[in-house]
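User: New here, any thoughts?
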Amino acid sequence: MPGVAGLDPEAVLPRSPAGLTLVDGVEWDLPLTRRDLAVTLDRVGSDHAFALLDVGHAAGEGAHAAIARADQLVVVTGPGAVGLAALSEALDRGREVNPAAARRAVHVVVCPSDDAYRAVHREVVQRLPQQPVAVVVVPPDPHLALGGVLDPARIASGTREAYVRVAAAVARGVR
């Protein structure tokens, strides 16, 4: 029975140098079923305490199943009105599918500029009717701005600190 991306259940899943198992998603035009997701999560869950699923803007069956099975939601957006609208939409979807996980949501705001970085936390706190557990602001980072493969050795110390704050917020929110 296949898992995500048509994985053979006997296939060896690739691991990062840090020991993380990496499972690529399906092509954008292929459906991801609840069964595919369940099989993959069961496989990954047998070796790992945490599974991170990037559902993006997908509103399909697989994204619904991922949100329904989540212990916690982490919503990553950009700053400003567009980021707040995306956060509001994601939290609405989370509250509809998995209210407990949505109540413990962590909002991560990735800022592309210093001006956005200075303004974003105040903006988020003032405009949200229901606050997420935590708001973590990721400062501008030249390495992240390049796009491409993330090299942890090349990210700025402020970015590393923000990632640690995300991990701490997730750890506090999981019950």
